[in-house]
Amino acid sequence: MSEQSQYQIKLRRTGGVGPNANWQWTIQDASGKVVKTGSAVGEEHKAFATARIAKEKLEAAGH
Questions:
Q1: 14: part of which helix (H) or strand (E)?
Q2: DSSP for 19-61?
Q3: C-beta of residue 26 within 8 angstroms of C-beta of residue 46
Q4: What is the pTM of this model?
Q5: Which of 17, 33, 58, 59 is deepest in the core (most CB within 10 A)?
Q6: Residues 14-54: pLDDT tens digits?
Q7: Alpha carbons 31 and 24: distance in angstroms, whole number
Q8: What is the arrangement of strands in the sheet containing 34-41, beginning at the earlier edge strand?
Q9: CA torsion through residues 7, 48, 45, 13, sign
Q10: What is the rounded CA–CA span in Å between residue 18 and residue 23?
């Protein structure tokens, strides 16, 4: 049985393509309030991994 996260990741490309793509990510709580934001450069899966790590740190901290 897996536990449902109270946070959701939103990822948006803000420019570039491929390895030069710029990504803006936000982590939102259950009510839609932005809890944390950040950016990443590179492929989409790498940008998502960066956001996922931030989300896991928030969950571990109990926010």
A1: strand 8-15
A2: GG-EEEEEEE-TTS-EEEEEEEES-HHHHHHHHHHHHHHHHHH
A3: no
A4: 0.83
A5: 58
A6: 999 989 999 999 999 999 999 999 999 999 999 999 999 99
A7: 20
A8: 8-15, 22-28, 34-41
A9: positive
A10: 11
> What is the Cα–Cα distance from 29 to 6, expressed in whole angstroms?
6
Residue type, 31: S
**C-alpha–C-alpha distance, residues 23 and 16, integer Å:** 9
Amino acid letter at 43? E
Residues 6+ apart with CB under 8 A from 5: 55, 59
Amino acid (1-letter code) at residue 17:
V
Residue pointed to by tokens 């790498």:
46
DSSP 3-state of 8: strand
* Nearest partner of 6 among 53, 50, 55, 52, judged by Cα: 55
